[in-house]
From TrEMBL, chain A:
Gene Ontology MF, one: succinate-CoA ligase (ADP-forming) activity
The protein's name: Succinate--CoA ligase [ADP-forming] subunit beta
Binding site for Mg(2+): N187, D201
Keyword Ligase belongs to the record: yes
Organism: Streptomyces solicavernae
Automatic annotation (TrEMBL), chain B:
Record protein name field: Succinate--CoA ligase [ADP-forming] subunit alpha
Binding site for CoA: T17, G18, A19, E20, K43, I102, T103, E104
Family: Belongs to the succinate/malate CoA ligase alpha subunit family.
PANTHER family (UniProt xref): SUCCINATE--COA LIGASE [ADP_GDP-FORMING] SUBUNIT ALPHA, MITOCHONDRIAL, SUCCINYL-COA LIGASE SUBUNIT ALPHA
Pathway, per record: Carbohydrate metabolism; tricarboxylic acid cycle; succinate from succinyl-CoA (ligase route): step 1/1
Record bears the keyword tRNA-binding: no
EC number: 6.2.1.5
Catalyses which reaction(s): succinate + ATP + CoA = succinyl-CoA + ADP + phosphate; GTP + succinate + CoA = succinyl-CoA + GDP + phosphate
Natural source organism: Streptomyces solicavernae
Pfam families, per the entry: CoA_binding, Ligase_CoA
Swiss-Prot/TrEMBL keywords: Ligase, Nucleotide-binding, Tricarboxylic acid cycle
CoA-binding domain: residues covered: 4-106
Annotated active site: H251
Amino acid sequence: MDLFEYQARELFEEYGVSVPTAEVAGTAKEARRIADRLGGRAVVKAQVKTGGRGKAGGVKLAADPAAAELTARQILGMDIKGHTAHQVMLAQPVEIETEFYVSYVLDRAAGHFLAIASAEGGMEIEEVAANRPEAVARIPVDPAHGVTADKAAEIARAAHLPPEAADVLVKLWTVLTEEDAVLVEVNPLVRTRDGRLLALDGKVALDDNARFRQTRWGGAETAHDDPLEARAAAKGLNYVKLDGQVGVVGNGAGLVMSTLDVVAGCGARPANFLDIGGGASARVMADGLSVILSDPDVRSVFVNVFGGITACDAVADGIVQALDEIRLTKPLVVRLDGNSAAQGRAILNGHRHPLVEQVTTMDGAARRAAQLAK
Amino acid sequence: MAIYLTKESKVLVQGMTGAEGMKHTRRMLAAGTNVVGGVNPRKAGRTVEFDDRAGGIDVFGTVREGIEATGADVTVVFVPPAFCKAAVTEAADAGIGLAVVITEGIPVHDTVAFQSYAQQRGTRVIGPNCPGLITPGQANAGIIPADITKPGRIGLVSKSGTLTYQLMYELRDIGFSTCVGIGGDPVIGTTHIDCLQAFEDDPETELVVLIGEIGGDAEERAAAYIREHISKPVVGYVAGFTAPEGKTMGHAGAIVSGSTGTARAKQQALEAAGVRVGATPTETARLVLEHLASS
């Protein structure tokens, strides 16, 4: 889960990293009051979980509270790369002398975290990294030791950051480990004219797998923009809405992704990703089908199950259960193979629903589902 | 021969007494695996009954006790996510050779810690969040269904469980030396490259099937490795061409961000290394058959 900038800012502050004075507003009127409290001038920043806000017009300087209200009104509701700004953060402007870049990011191939730091921070850091890699230090962090004062000093030296940045690096490492983050990025980390080191903008991504021990955020981000995704999430289903016409359900993320590809290869577009997981029960299958069938874009549904742990008879029972609960108006193409496939096929054959069709191969079933969606 | 797991392997199961642990220990035994003990500090000293094992299986309090009593060299980990770091660390401390971590949902900081710890102590980790590995006809360490296929000359390495089963099924008449599900998490122990080298060194493996999916650059690295070091034919399959950018599709690792890590990039890298890549699992199986027929 990605945090909003204002949430990252709060975390940094809590761990002792200096940040600009700022508050969050959900309405333009509130923005005006905050600007007033901040002393009049304020930077108004759209709170969206994507980069490129500045270029999209989502970050603006307001000279006084009235201007802050006006600017907030422009930004609230703005769409930035598919993300709607529902909130703005108003921050006290600071006089910037120098901009730096620091982050901790997971190096998947190496299997540990990497400190990335540069004395050339700001918006163009990706260009700097691409064009002048020597200006960006990449230092692996040994998980057994973490970022100690010595390690932080090493990172700061390698990146030509001022020595006092080492303290910030240690604190950000604490944010990363204590909060179970998979990314902590400060861009820019600035030195102000009056000599302070401030985290001006930050990005924190948390590890969803650590939710069992990180209760602070609770279900903070279970708000799904898409109503079908929200409904699926409420039933504990692993569902992602896509923009095609063939509904897809299968078991195992790899097989379902492969199913989307095979459907696309047949000239149709998948309407969704839905993984019922290993060892799925009839109930899960029935819930999944009911979500897919309530998608108005769906014209046909492809159920693709290879029974490993999952038993195909349970899958077939789930399909039958769904057919009892909802009136099927769209054709269902089912391919069952593997564990208890014969029993599963027999259950569906016994049910004899006119809109349910069985095809024995994955490619053949995808072709049929694609054809039915035309 | 085979890689990593044979009928000689002596297998411990950490978390054997839990529901999943019991179910899969039963299946592993049915597949002929020499399961020599379970590990659970709260149930040490008990013996658990199994149909396929006369006299039942003893539960040890620690991996070290299990190794001392049985000579175990492999452990399969089914313990809940919160306890996996301790479980793998303990197994590595006890000197186990191979730890197969089936558990899904382990925080990545924990995986980073136990993987690095195990590596320093010479313990190979497979997983986490993986189906484990099977050497058909010999042993099964994990949750891969043992009855899909038979012993044979194909080696298989895959990020995805169900795609592994699908390919095993498509090629069931040829059979497999060993199938390894390495898992789809962002950080894993054993990689495609490790398995490729092991299959290269295994005289009974004639051809390797490599299954990848979007996210990370493991397949691109594997492609570079194949070009330099692998003489046996490799046939590939990559899932996730249709997955939208930035959306997670089940596996923590299957996230596309920016231009790298896309299925297309992986396919191109593999093809540039001389690997034939199938458009569907079925076509991939056909490419394997063509290779074997021509060799």
